Amino acid sequence: MTGEALAPAPPVASAARAADGGGWREIAGPAASALLHRIRGVLGVLRPITWVLLVGAIALWIAGVALGWIELVVAAVVIAVTLALCALFLIGRTAYDVTLDLNRTRVIVGERAVGALTLANSGSRAILPSRVVLPVGAGRGVFQVKRLAAGESAEELFAIPTNKRAILEVGPVSVVRGDPLGLFERVHRRDQPVDLYVHPRTVTFAGQSLGFLRDLDGLPTTDLSPDDVSFHALRAYTPGDDLRHVHWRSTARTGDVMVRQYEETRRSHFVIGLSRGAADYRDADEFELAISVAGSLGLRALRDSRRVEVRVQGRGLPSATGKQLLDSLSGVEHSRPREGGIVELAGVISTTLAMASVAVLVCGSGVDAAQLRVACARLPFGARALAVVARTGATPSLRRIGDADVLTIGALEQLPIALRKVLA
Q1: Residue-number span of the structural domain to which 60 is assigned
Q2: In this structure, are 172 and 109 located in the same domain?
Q3: In the prediction, which pLDDT does 262 show?
Q4: What is the pLDDT of residue 61?
């Protein structure tokens, strides 16, 4: 009788076993992750000193038992009882309803930002005293909150000093429950952080800061012109008027020769190039002065209904409104050396903003006359060029380098007077 060879297991069975093993892995994976998360949460309440005491208690216990020294065993027991008593302070709810309210989210350097932190107990049981930590940038404020009965709330007022321009992240609020010895600490974060914009100082000045260029595609102005594309009104003919602008229907109706009067249309693309290269400035004060100058010029141009664009090394800054401009200037920091200085920035402006009507370069005293000459020569063709050099403590001065006017100022308050010299 011929024996039959055993057939291999069907592929379906192998696939089923593989699927079964994969299913276990799919179940075990989330369970293991949840277990690890729980373990991290438990271990996270231990401070570094707590680990030292734990290791010390175990070592003392082992040494006392091995050597027969009852003193070491007693010391280990005392440490263990102390740790157990301190751990009891972690018991209790910290489920506050937290509200963080800043009076203003935008302030000027030197002003105080005032806010209120409200914690309410919306539960049915009392919440034991806690410590509340409010991060503000690199610092933090700490508030001690008393015991809150059900339905009770507490309000803490605070003031944030603003000594330097920055964008500060206020929050998130952390509720800390711990023991008097500082061995255990349980932290629960509440609420969302709020951005506090510390704007640079700016100065206002009357009148248009710089001139426009006439352009048929530009915006109409209040200045009248005998020839343009924006019609304004009719007026009586005066000797020398171009007869091509005579309005013959009105002339026939009134019996007097009437000519068309136009409003000038001007191109108003105002570009500010602010260098943030560290080598272009002697110190931090010059850098802050340059940022304040750029902000003052941008705000004046926006009030003049111009299209304003601000460029720094590596990017353009949002500047459609005054708030956007100052918000973006609040976060400007020094660029990396490979991004270049004022000369490279002028080249980027010429490439990306070729239709600019006015281009202003702002830098520090680290830029010499030769660099300014090269930078101004790279600006868009046909644009009016101006450079403002920030040099703290300097007397305002005006000079001409190539086709550009170069202003040097030593304080922000000198800017309006210096600009009047340019416009004279």
Answers
A1: 35-91
A2: yes
A3: 67
A4: 93
User: What's the number of domains the chain is made of?
Assistant: 4
CATH number of the domain within which 349 lies: 3.40.50.410
Query: Hey, what amino acid is at 348?
Result: V
Q: Are residues 56 and 104 in the same domain?
A: no
Question: Could you tell me which of 143, 89, 94 has the C-alpha nearest to residue 116?
Answer: 143
Angle between helices 70-87 and 48-67 (to 10 degrees): 150
pTM: 0.70
Q: Are residues 167 and 238 in the same domain?
A: no
Contact 53, 81 (CB under 8 A): no
pLDDT 10s digits, 207-241: 554 544 334 344 444 444 444 444 557 888 888 88
All residue ranges of the chain with pLDDT < 50 are 1-21, 209, 211-230, 265-266
Render 27-82 in DSSP notation, one character per residue: HHHHHHHHHHHHHHHHHTTB-HHHHHHHHHHHHHHHHHHHHT-HHHHHHHHHHHHH
Whether 26 is in a domain gets the answer no
End-to-end Cα, the chain, rounded Å = 121
Query: What is the C-alpha to C-alpha distance for residues 89 and 178, in angstroms, rounded to an integer?
Result: 6
**Per-residue model confidence (pLDDT) at position 400:** 92
